[in-house]
Amino acid sequence: MLEVKHLTVSIRNKNGKIYPIVKNLSYKLQEGQTLAIVGESGCGKTMQAMAIMGLLPPNISVTRGQILFQGKDILKLSKKERREINGKEIALVFQDALTALNPVITILQHLLEVFKARTNLTSDEAENKIKELLQQVELPQNILSSYPHQISGGQRQRVMLALALALNPKLLIADEPTTALDEKTQEQILNLIKKLQKTYKMAVIFITHDLILAKEIADKIFVLYYGTKIEEAASKDLFSNPLHPYTYGLFKSIITRDTPKGIPLFEIYGYIKKGGRFYGCPFKDRCKKSSRVCYKFLPPLEELKPKHFCACFWAKSTQFQRGKNGI
Fold first, then answer.
1. What does the pLDDT read at residue 167?
2. Are the C-beta atoms of 243 and 250 separated by less than 8 Å?
3. Residue 148 or 323, more confident
4. Bridge partners of 267?
């Protein structure tokens, strides 16, 4: 359904210099499949999604690559052709529903606008469709008269899902849809997305920084670091045997109810750099096992185990050791 090929997204800074923020990204997504994209804030997760939707800011653009949706390169489409795809074929659920929704119109007006702008349904037909949508996203009918600020965060996220599903898209991109929600509400939203995926037979791209959420919803996961894909595998394989030191560090950093008290937490030393070009492995400055080769060359993404890809010289040689409290 979707194939991203060698996608590079670049930003132009105030001095007019251009540098990549998503670098040579490639992946495929099949019909009905769920792909989770995981990484720290600023690693390019949202930017690659905005490139798919054609919603990049003015100072950011695609400088290389293709985005093939059902075999057609959507980067070559006109704005009018892109508009026909957005919503009807590909839908996006934004991270912050409160800022994504219009604060001065009701939930009913939000939903009616979609049908008036993109369909030939009469007002009565549109309202009947809206009632069906509310049932599917498990919202009460009386919410239609409310404004976004008058409903809870979980309800706003369900409204966003209803807006995204209004035109029966084939691909849903969910950009951190559970951010700032409590654990119970997060679980409800995840279960709802999984249920709606089966109902609509959609493919889903789930963007998150939370590995636990990714494990619960995704068939396949890939990890982005500094705009570069460093590991990709089926969800079970990635959790049972992470190969890249960064991925391993993310897993070890997870705090659960079973985490023993009084034991030092696992630490990934240093911090991710912001902007600019780099040489060699993007993780080299934070990895205790980095060597000269890591500073000279960018490790290629290779299939080190069946359908398990990793970009790491140490993982390839299986020589790196994992410490108790750090990498």
1. 92
2. no
3. 148
4. 326
pLDDT, tens digit, 9 for 90 and up, residues 11-70 = 998 888 898 999 999 999 999 999 999 988 888 999 999 999 999 999 999 999 999 999
Q: Under a CB-based contact definition with an 8 Å cutoff, are residues 45 and 207 in contact? A: yes
- Contact assessment for residue 87 and residue 169, using Cβ atoms and an 8 Å cutoff: yes
Distance CA 22, CA 63 (A): 10
Single-letter code of the amino acid located at 41:
S
| Sheet architecture: strand order including 72-73 | 18-29, 2-12, 60-69, 72-73
Rounded Cα distance, 296 and 67, in Å: 30
pLDDT surpassing 90 at residue 327: no
Please give the Cα distance from 148 to 163 (Å, whole number).
13
* pLDDT score recorded for residue 269: 84
CB 9 within 8 A of CB 21: yes
Which residues on adjacent β-strands are paired with residue 61? 10
Q: How far apart are CA 12 and CA 10, in angstroms?
A: 7
CA distance 199 to 196: 5
Distances in Å between the Cα of 7 and the Cα atoms of 3, 10, 23, 160, 229 are 10, 10, 7, 28, 11
Instruction: State the amino acid at position 232 in one-letter form.
Output: E
- Encoding tokens for residue 239? 């959790």
Position 185 pLDDT exceeds 80: yes
Question: Tokens standing for 244?
Answer: 């890249």
Q: d(Cα 140, Cα 224) in Å, to the nearest integer?
A: 38
pTM confidence score: 0.91
Nearest C-alpha neighbor of 194 from the set 181, 183, 178:
178
Q: Hunting for tokens 């299939």 — which residue is that?
A: 303
